[in-house]
Specification:
ten-stranded antiparallel beta sheet; Membrane protein insertase YidC; about 30% helix; about 575 residues; Beta-galactosidase, Chain A, domain 5; 2 domains; YidC/Oxa/ALB_C; five-stranded antiparallel beta sheet; transport; elongated; protein transport
């Protein structure tokens, strides 16, 4: 096989490789905006805290000038609130959320847990007097059940001012839910009953509200393809990716924004803070029992009134446009929120997002005809093959013609091996006589590249594929690898404990397709032998744990490609003049 045909094959492999690595190669996280303050919140020292350890974001420094009023009569209890959407569990120790399950979505056959703690005991919505390094308030709060969908936790404290006076105040945390909303409200109130101002100030902040330690569902690792966690901020016109410092594992900004989010592959937590100018800290620092964390800390400036309430709104739910867009129109949600643009949290290719949307529309159209996403993927694959037929047909024809004159090309190379200019001239003349464009086998592939990339993005993260069954008992979730057998041990180095069938079908069809495309030249071309056998095997290991929807698409593509190549080869044998 001549070098032009080899170049065509190499380009094909590059295209596929680019498709599989598109998230990290073509769509890296957006660089963060220039921020006013990209430094960590470093607590200021005080005379009565000299022995406290200095840490950033993960410390447990105490606050000496705030004391809890005796709460010996308060007993520890658990509070449960259930809506059509949530099953929320609270503890009055700190007034925190210990569990939030999504009733409409499952994880391992159970309602999906959004408060992922791993083996840690950390909870969500801890409050710290001062910056995020301060010790979380862990006292027992009184429970006030406002109604079936609202609960208030309150505790009495005193603040010692600069004159040594103890100023009393009440801290309230009020959670409010609506029956059919993935959004809920959290009000933080600090109230002084004698019209005095409890000037809470530690590290320059009145308090910090923290969400963490991680969002669900459960995961074994965050590799980027199967599952990931990303921090986003939306400024009202554009979404920005928050870059976490690799060394400190956190980032802090004082900029104003509409919302901040922790985004996973299919689910997200979005925080819409109140009107105060919060300092926001994003952290991925590990904690005991949980190596991968995703936390957001909202540090509130000093309060200058005797009664103050800050309202936070939090969205816990799926990354689906039909739900997120409800919060763009007041009449469509229970909190009358509008223009939040929560749907901007959905990940799309920055360059080819428009093409992903077109392919998604076609996929959903097939799904409406036959309500099985596996069948819809197969129909989408056939549709794409039909659309791309003029390009791929020309490519395969050109490759086949190049193979047919391979012996003549080799003769010219041998005959004029000492005269490269003459050899190139004779080869050009032969191409012209035979009606062959040497680049005809590879240029059409460039037109297919955008579709390969867009399909990778679509099938790798389309929400509706999560839990979608193709074949009962085999492919029961197109968003994850299928399993035909679970090993009683883990394969060393590879770390595999499950046997997946689709990767074997993929590599088999890929080998068959590659062999058909290079038929007739394999015996005399060791490079082609290596590419034909080695590349599919390499992809086998790359794709082994990929979602079954993606592998289904590639396997069907290989089969259709092979059938097309067999047809072209047979046609050229029976119609040599028209070949």
């Amino acid at each position: 096989m001549d070098k032009n045909t080899l170049l065509a094959v190499v380009l094909s492999v590059i295209v596929i490789t680019i498709g599989f690595s598109v998230q990290s190669t073509f769509f890296p996280p957006e660089p963060p905006r220039p921020q006013q303050d990209q430094t960590a919140v470093v607590p200021a020292e005080s005379a009565d805290e000299e022995t406290a350890p200095e840490t950033a974001v993960t410390g447990v420094r105490q606050v000496a000038n705030i004391k809890r009023v005796d709460s010996a009569t308060v007993k520890e209890e658990t509070v449960l609130i259930e809506t059509n959407i949530f099953q929320a569990t609270f503890s009055n120790r700190g007034g925190v959320l210990t569990s939030l399950k999504l009733k409409e979505h499952e994880d391992n056959g159970k309602p999906l847990e959004m408060i992922y703690t791993g083996e840690s005991n950390e909870t969500a919505f801890n409050l710290h007097f001062g910056g995020p390094d301060r010790e979380a308030v862990n006292d027992l709060f009184r429970v006030v059940r406002l109604d079936g969908s609202s609960v208030r936790f309150e505790g009495d404290f005193t603040y010692r001012d600069d004159n040594g006076n103890n100023v009393p105040f009440t801290l309230q945390k009020t959670y409010t839910f609506k029956p059919d909303d993935y959004l809920f409200e959290l009000d933080i109130s600090i109230i002084n009953s004698i019209n005095d101002i409890p000037r809470l100030e530690n590290d320059g902040f009145a308090y910090t509200l923290s969400y963490g330690p991680q969002i669900g569902p459960e995961f074994s690792s965050l590799g980027g393809r199967q599952e990931y966690r990303r921090f986003y901020q939306y400024d009202g016109s554009k979404r920005h990716t928050v870059k976490i410092d690799k060394d400190t594992q956190y980032s802090t900004t004082n900029e104003r924004y509409v919302w901040a989010a922790i985004a996973g592959k299919y689910f997200t937590v979005i925080a819409v803070p109140g009107a105060a100018s919060y300092s926001t800290t994003y952290s991925s620092r590990p904690i005991p029992g949980l190596e991968d964390t995703a936390k957001i800390h909202f540090s509130r400036p000093v309060i200058k009134s005797s009664r103050n309430t800050d309202t936070f709104r939090f969205y816990f739910g799926p990354k689906t446009a039909r739900i997120l867009e409800k919060y763009n129109e007041a009449e469509k949600n229970g909190f009358n929120m509008q223009d939040l643009d929560l749907d901007e949290v959905i990940d799309q290719g920055r360059i080819l997002g428009w093409l992903e949307n077109i392919l998604k529309f076609i996929l959903l159209t097939f799904y409406k005809v036959i309500p099985n996403y596996g069948v819809a993927i197969i129909l989408l694959t056939i549709f794409i093959k039909i659309v791309l037929f003029p390009f791929t047909h020309k490519s395969y024809e050109s490759t086949s013609k190049m193979q047919s004159i391979g012996p003549k090309i080799n003769e010219l190379r041998e005959k004029y091996k000492d005269n490269p200019n003459k050899m190139n001239a004779e080869m050009a003349a032969m191409y012209k006589r035979e009606g062959i464009n040497p680049m005809g086998g590879c240029l059409p592939i460039l037109f297919q590249m955008p579709i390969f990339i867009a399909l990778y993005g679509l099938l790798n993260k389309h929400f509706d594929l999560r839990g979608a069954v193709f074949i009962e008992g085999w492919i029961t979730d197109l968003s994850s690898p299928e399993t035909i057998f679970t090993l009683p041990f883990t394969i060393p180095i590879l770390g595999w404990s499950e046997i997946h069938l689709l990767p074997f079908l993929f590599v088999g069809t890929q080998l068959w397709s590659s062999k058909q495309m290079s038929a007739g030249s394999m015996a005399s071309n060791n490079q082609m032998k290596m590419m034909t056998y080695l590349m599919p095997i390499m992809f086998f290991f790359i794709l082994y744990d990929m979602p079954s929807g993606l592998l289904l698409y590639w396997t069907v593509t290989n089969l259709l490609t092979t059938v097309q190549q067999l047809f072209i080869t047979r046609h050229q044998k029976t119609h040599p003049k028209g070949a």
